[in-house]
Amino acid sequence: MNDSTLERFHYDNKIVKYFSAATIIWGLVGMLVGLLAATQLFLPEANLGNPYTTFGRIRPLHTNAVIFAFVGNAIFAGVYYSMPRLLKTPMWNSFLSWFHFWGWQLIIVAAAITLPLGFTTSKEYAELEWPIDIAIALVWVAFGANMIGTLIKRRERHMYVAIWFYLASFVTVAVLHIFNSFELPVSFMKSYSAYAGVQDALVQWWYGHNAVAFFLTTPFLGLMYYFLPKAANRPVYSYKLSIVHFWSLIFLYMWAGPHHLLYTALPEWAQVLGTVFSVMLVAPSWGGMVNGLLTLRGAWDKVRNEPVLKFMVVAITAYGMATFEGPMLSLKNVNAIAHYTDWIVGHVHIGGLGWNGFLTFGMLYWMWPRLFKTSLFSTKLANTHFWLGTLGIVFYALPLYVSGLTQFLMLKEFNEAGRLAYPNFLETVIQIVPMYMLRAFGGLLYLSGAIVMMYNMWMTAKQGVFQETEEDQAPALAKAYNPSGEFWHRAWERKPVFFTILATIAIAIGGAIEIIPTILIKSNVPTITSVKPYTPLELEGRDLYIANGCVGCHSQMIRPFRSETERYGEYSKAGEFVYDRPFLWGSKRTGPDLHRIGGKYPDSWHYYHMVDPGSMSPGSLMPPYPWMTTNELDKSDLPAKIRTLQKLGVPYPEGFDQEATADYDAQASKIVANLKDAGVEVAPNTEIVALIAYLQRMGTDIKQQAAVPNQ
């Protein structure tokens, strides 16, 4: 073709460099916070003696930092590098690109400030409060608009497979974020979920599972389909397998959320659907893994010498392991063993450290030197990073599998007399402390590898010259093109709007079929007439419980197992949670379940347990919270909380917002009197009084009356 028929354009490497640098920096921050959290599990003193760095507050900081800051910036770096090159055009709008970059970094900074301060919704992977939720939606829409604009002005007729995954990720994350974030604000940094109890749990894990699917999986599959063939200098193994992989994956994933809620108060039909579709996910997930690994056919000799390919091979293998283990954990008999134990933490980190972390490292090692027109500073250091990271994953995950099985075996065991062999939950915690130490050591190795990478990248940049723009040329896209006999999917690939609509329909079906009946059909949540709304003092105590991240260690869901009902009491019923906004069923038991803690101990026991946990539970690894005995609780927004909950359907009497403070004071004075009788002097407006009120209320409604069906 004659040069005169080609259009010249350039790619913006500067935005890629910024997102890549942010990936490295935030990755180190997220891993460091994770190491601090892991250390606190065997050394509570590592909370540094203040409320802002306790485990309950920094755990969500860690998960948000590694998911949205480290992995998120990696996705954007890869997309802004690969998409223009695949479509033969610059990104549509430079302003939107930079709005996306700076907006995303400001969101991360806002999360880093608000989460340690206790501003949280407590929803897994969606802890940020409503103003930040709105900012996330705006920035995400800007990213999507830029992506779609680029697709419309492309010079390449057909969309390559990586673009399919980018599009599906954008659409689905937008849908998930918006629907899960329906909440009614109380004040600038406080809101209540629009959903309650069982419905809130289902919507949250529809979001939570699919945030893993469409933020941590599908965009990374897109990156795999671009960067792995580039690094191996081989075409993708099978185009048709990628079609089956893509459509079956995005359709099936959206049904699988309920597998996080097996044996809970969720309706049985929803649990069954979640299990069935989770097991079906093995096929498309492994289709992607096979397509990736077989792309290396004829290039395996390079894996021995190329650190980029080493990282990518382990990443794809970890993806295969995690996506086999996930469906297996969705089987109810396996879930009964693993849920609420460290097994789940190990499973999640195989995916996080292996799949997301290693694919990110491989992508950066391939891309960064090309941005600076040089070679990698040190292949030896990259290989060192690879082995530190690999050993880190092994030392992190294997102890957690041992820990999870230990927890299961001890907590389920009965003696010859038919009684629990280990009735005290703390007995299991003491046994697994060495596993927590090994897990932290694994995290330290992984972090050390990332530090080595940062140095390698810095030196690579120093020895090269950054190329801010990269020139390219391609013929303009011909308007008329409709060949006869074209393969049906190839026809879809040249119609991005039509393709996006089809992907949206595919992801919407599963969620709609599960969520709509659960919300609209009342028989899914049988009424318990004795369940009443929380009193103002209990409500404030519950909000404190949420702010301090107590749900990160304690569940509030007793499953219908003999071992759990013997240890904790009557199993949990759906109708008990109708006023819980948000639900607090938890996803991990580092401490015992608390759903039936109400009335089990006197007020003074809870006081001393918060001041010095070891005094009430010898050997406890829970950190002390002495500041709660002196911190005054600000109840100025209490009337606004009552009014907000009334709007959401909580049946407080009309005008109760004006009486809430007096009600608070009356109940607080009773607890203060109880504490005084036990020799404890405390002011009625302190945080500890409100927290005690909530703990003493927890799970007591069921003792009064059994469930009755809706009339």
TrEMBL record:
Keywords in alphabetical order: Cell membrane, Copper, Electron transport, Heme, Iron, Membrane, Metal-binding, Respiratory chain, Translocase, Transmembrane, Transmembrane helix, Transport
Binding site for Cu cation: 209, 259-260
Claim: Metal-binding is one of the keywords in the record: yes
Cofactor annotation remark: Binds 1 copper ion per subunit, denoted as copper B.
GO BP term (any one): electron transport coupled proton transport
Enzyme nomenclature, EC number: 7.1.1.9
Cofactor(s) it depends on: heme b; Cu(2+); heme
Domain of life: Bacteria
PROSITE patterns hit by this protein: COX1, COX1_CUB, CYTC
NCBIfam families associated with the record: ccoN, ccoO, PRK14485.1, PRK14487.1
Official protein name in the record: cytochrome-c oxidase
Originating organism: Algoriphagus boritolerans DSM 17298 = JCM 18970
